[in-house]
């Protein structure tokens, strides 16, 4: 896997508590194709920098029992323009 070719992915994820956040972060951070994860519980938002495809990331998130919907994707400057930073 070419880690120089990463994308920023934004997902809307059904989360209602800290254990939801921990489950989603845990499954994503274990995958070697994921470089970084930012979870915002209040916005039910997950931002991922990854070399994986959006479907692979969505599958990882949904393996925790939560529904995930891809909201957007971008290149290396995507997070710099995010309202979370």
UniProtKB/TrEMBL annotation:
Annotated InterPro entries: HMA_dom, HMA_dom_sf
Annotated SUPFAM superfamilies: HMA, heavy metal-associated domain (SSF55008)
Top-level taxon of the source organism: Eukaryota
Pfam family, one: HMA
Domain HMA: 6-69
Molecular function in Gene Ontology: metal ion binding
Protein name per Swiss-Prot or TrEMBL: HMA domain-containing protein
């Amino acid at each position: 896997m070419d880690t120089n070719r990463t994308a920023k992915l934004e997902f809307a994820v059904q989360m209602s508590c800290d254990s939801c956040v921990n489950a989603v972060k845990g499954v994503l951070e274990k995958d070697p194709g994921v470089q970084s994860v930012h979870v915002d519980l209040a916005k039910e938002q997950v931002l991922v920098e990854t070399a994986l495809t959006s479907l692979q990331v969505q599958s990882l998130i949904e393996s925790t029992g939560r529904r995930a919907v891809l909201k957007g994707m971008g290149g290396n400057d995507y997070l710099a323009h995010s309202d979370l930073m």
